[in-house]
Amino acid sequence: MKKLLFIATIAGLSFACNNNEAKSSSTNDSSATATPPPADSSAKASQTALKDGLMTLKGGKMMIVKGGAWAAMDSTITCTNGRKVAVDGTVTKGSKSRKMEDGMMIDKDGQIMDKDGKPMDTSGWD
């Protein structure tokens, strides 16, 4: 009886694992239409829907999402919280300035995210 229960448990776990992989691959296929510039560190950004106004530094140049696709920034952009993002990746607010590192992101509201897409502490800016 214990062997039968063990086999049923293993079969159930195998089925559950395979079922999650099928859902995961179908989700990734639908989001593959708009991909960010190729970079290992921005893989998480490609898995989520790209929002217009999201900016990232790639190869020393700032890229911005326009209409769901990445495009090169051609001028300085002011975020809703007052931060200004320059084409070279310099972010300023008031008298404070910070140079973004390759792969870092900032959204149109001025929230700075690290290379993994996690919000960074910017309490010293305000």
Question: What does this entry show, briefly?
Answer:
With 126 residues, the protein is α+β, with helices and mostly antiparallel strands. The protein is 27% helix and 24% strand. The strands form two sheets. It has a five-stranded antiparallel sheet with strand order 3-2-1-8-9, with no helix packed on it.
Write the topology of this structure.
Layout: H1 2-30, H2 43-47, E1 55-58, E2 61-66, E3 69-72, E4 77-78, E5 84-85, E6 90-93, E7 96-99, E8 105-106, E9 112-113
Antiparallel strand pairs: 1-2, 1-8, 2-3, 4-5, 5-6, 6-7, 8-9
Walk across the major sheet and give the strand order. Answer: 3-2-1-8-9
- Fraction of helical residues: 25-40%
What gap, in angstroms, lies between the N and C termini? 66 Å
Estimated share of beta-strand residues? 15-25%
What Rg is obtained from the alpha carbons, in whole angstroms? Answer: 21 Å
Number of helices: 2
| Main sheet properties | 5 strands, antiparallel
The beta-strand count equals: 9
Order of secondary-structure elements = HHEEEEEEEEE
Unreliable stretches (pLDDT < 50, length at least 5) are 20-34, 40-47
How many independent structural domains? 2
The chain-level structural class is alpha+beta
Shape: elongated
Instruction: Give the mean pLDDT.
Output: 77
Describe the structure.
This protein has helices at residues 2-30, 43-47, and strands at residues 55-58, 61-66, 69-72, 77-78, 84-85, 90-93, 96-99, 105-106, 112-113. It has 126 residues and is an alpha+beta fold. The chain folds into two domains: 2-32; 35-125, no CATH class. Strands 3-2-1-8-9 form a five-stranded antiparallel sheet, with no helix packed on it. Strands 4-5-6-7 form a four-stranded antiparallel sheet, with no helix packed on it.
